[in-house]
């Protein structure tokens, strides 16, 4: 029962942060969403920072497994990249939400250090995964692959932000198609 309550808290918090950001996360409102007393949240998470760091850590683990599964399927470079960009599109399609790490990254200066650290880890995970996929081409030097991986991650996060701002997922699809047509994303 306790694990179920903790998971409900984390899921409600994730949705809140993806919609309103770190500054919009309130234990009082979260307790209402979950149907428990506000003080009960403190049983699981002492602070908003602790909860947020746990959220990003869980988010990173989830997407690490999801992306690594693509590599284990033996998909080609183009298909891997299409599935990767689809992950961000799917987040937008879920009520115009942003990537949790992207949303928190925009509030970097307001975040406790442990949350900032977890957000950076999420970005690092994306860049490592993209570098593995890009290495399938076999022609570039490792440092070039790393730079391209970072550029792709930044481009996808940016495309998601623009589409979110406009409330238009098709803007994301259009931007990603333009990146592909111009060679930024294979």
Structural features, described:
By secondary structure, the protein is mainly alpha-helical. The chain has a domain at 54-181: Orthogonal Bundle (Tetracycline Repressor, domain 2), CATH 1.10.357.10. The protein has 9 helices and no strands. Helix 5 (77-93) packs parallel to helix 8 and helix 7 (113-134) crosses helix 8 (142-166). The termini are far apart. The mean pLDDT is 95.
Blueprint of the fold:
Elements: H1 2-20, H2 27-34, H3 38-44, H4 48-72, H5 77-93, H6 100-106, H7 113-134, H8 142-166, H9 169-181
Question: Which terms summarize this structure?
Answer:
mainly alpha; 77% helix; elongated; Tetracycline Repressor, domain 2
**Parts with pLDDT < 50 across at least 5 consecutive residues:** none
CATH architecture classification of the domain at 54-181: Orthogonal Bundle
**Helix percentage range:** over 70%
Rg (CA only): 18 Å
| Name of the top-level CATH class of the domain at 54-181 | Mainly Alpha
The proportion of strand residues reads under 5%
Identify the overall geometry: elongated
CATH domain topology of the domain at 54-181 = Tetracycline Repressor, domain 2
Sheet with the most strands, sense and barrel status:
none
Short account of what is shown:
This protein has 186 residues and is mostly helical. The protein is 77% helix and 0% strand.
